[in-house]
Amino acid sequence: MAVYTEVPDNEMAAFVAGYGIGDLLSAKGIAEGVSNSNFLLHTTQGFYILTLYEERVCADDLPFFIGLMEHLAQRGLICPQPLRTGDGAAVGRLAGRPAAIVTFLDGLSVRRPTVAHCGEVGRGLALLHEAGRDFGMQRANVLSVPGWRPLAEQAGAEADTVLPGLSKRIFAEIEAHERNWPQGLPSGIIHADLFPNNVFFIKDQLSGLIDFYFACTDAFAYDLAICLNSWCFEADASFNLTKGQALLAGYESVRPLEAAEVAALPALCRGSALRFLLTRLVDWLNVPEGAFVKPLDPLEYDRKLAFHQRVSDAREYGLRR
Amino acid sequence: MAVYTEVPDNEMAAFVAGYGIGDLLSAKGIAEGVSNSNFLLHTTQGFYILTLYEERVCADDLPFFIGLMEHLAQRGLICPQPLRTGDGAAVGRLAGRPAAIVTFLDGLSVRRPTVAHCGEVGRGLALLHEAGRDFGMQRANVLSVPGWRPLAEQAGAEADTVLPGLSKRIFAEIEAHERNWPQGLPSGIIHADLFPNNVFFIKDQLSGLIDFYFACTDAFAYDLAICLNSWCFEADASFNLTKGQALLAGYESVRPLEAAEVAALPALCRGSALRFLLTRLVDWLNVPEGAFVKPLDPLEYDRKLAFHQRVSDAREYGLRR
């Protein structure tokens, strides 16, 4: 959560004018999104979100992200809808960065999800997978198995300064996945980062999904594994089976899992826990001088990984069969 | 700019419900205000700002700040208007802190004020002084002359790590003010922190004043001196006389200065430059571990102070007489 970029006077008003949404009345830097600078705009026509894309988002991927949000919104999914200028461009440049304006979504993200929230997000995730089926673009998941070894090497022996023995355990885990990663599962558009801070609720009802900047083409069940990791553990790293049941039942109420997905779920949960352990570890070891952002604890995902390593059947996550 | 406090689930919705402004639909942490946590709220009735008061604001002063904003708004000044619960309370508690909700104001703060902006803010400052005349409460300016020596002692010899010789110059300046500080000037409610980030504009017209948490009872001309410091210098610490002329003319179009105020202006400008030099210096030397906030450069105010030390007549600030 951070505003990284300060936008010079007048430049913002001129940028907004291009989108034909009236005159700019207010712009507040908001603490939302980890990788980008976001501003909540008020114009004479309404409220909008302005995003300035910082380095971490590759400019070449923006047409995919923008196109995906447009596609999903057209399919009825509640997500930010990109605006286009009179020339038809969604992405422009502001303060030296690619920038876009999307619609403002109501809703509050929950810090401590309840069972009801887990059911809602399971259902929402399946709706997202269904809505993305006929989207024409593809994007490889750069943070799947082939991306893990380079991350582990980037952290290197320093990982052991965070927790003794961590480096060795990480490489062993990577090796196991490189040999046995599930193949040929039903695939399509996945969100790949549907943590509680990216899901909005109004009175326990899901009201929108945001932050599609990790979205890619990968196995649907991998997305589900990411959600099991980020929604169904308690603060002490214990797994809440009732939440798992709700999330999986919510998902299957829209899109029932195939047998191969059920069989793969423990491996996918391990892999996705490893993925967040690795990226958090690299961030943890590379906090820039004078950073505004507190890095997230990598060991939260080491503890979750340890849980998954002892799981052998998807029923242990609450899948009803 | 920072959001310091994270508010637990449901607590915020319950807090908002007490104010009778409908159901909470959205709450975004915003980068506004230096000392407090601010959230932009959307409810079924409109947009509001929720402020959580952090340590730096003394809870005992809140009735003064809240009462002042209500008073000024009733007198027609555009400033945040505090809301009250059914019980008549403006300040409640949220996440262990005093908290209040005020109306949302449109407008953009300018990073590089133009001459036109300076004229507007001069006029706005005088309107604030006039609107505060019949406000019944008082609050001493704890950051005036008696507060400077303790700040300088807090910085101590460490000041010289920022710039060699700074400590000695500061104590000499304090001594000069302790002997000769202007007395008996027209006084009343002053904002005491009317920097560009606390003034909103829509298309070059002043649309509102915010952040009254340094407001106190002191000489009106001292407030004007603070504005000359914060609005009329260029980034290289050169004084822009045209901006000074506009600011002073704007002020006098509402409230002409008395002869004693004119005579005191150079001393007041020196004093107010010293006040911001001192608080910034203490902040600079005391950045907490893991801070989210980048401290402001104290030497900006050392350079401004040096300018004022060579001024002997208010006409050098652009006062037309």
TrEMBL record, chains A, B:
Signal peptide: none annotated. SUPFAM superfamilies: Protein kinase-like (PK-like). One of its GO terms (molecular function) is homoserine kinase activity. Keywords: Amino-acid biosynthesis, ATP-binding, Kinase, Nucleotide-binding, Threonine biosynthesis, Transferase. The gene is thrB. It catalyses: L-homoserine + ATP = O-phospho-L-homoserine + ADP + H(+). The keyword Nucleotide-binding applies. This is Homoserine kinase. CDD domains: HomoserineK_II (cd05153). The lineage of its organism: Bacteria, Pseudomonadati, Pseudomonadota, Alphaproteobacteria, Hyphomicrobiales. It holds the Pfam family APH. Its EC number is 2.7.1.39. Pathway: Amino-acid biosynthesis; L-threonine biosynthesis; L-threonine from L-aspartate: step 4/5.
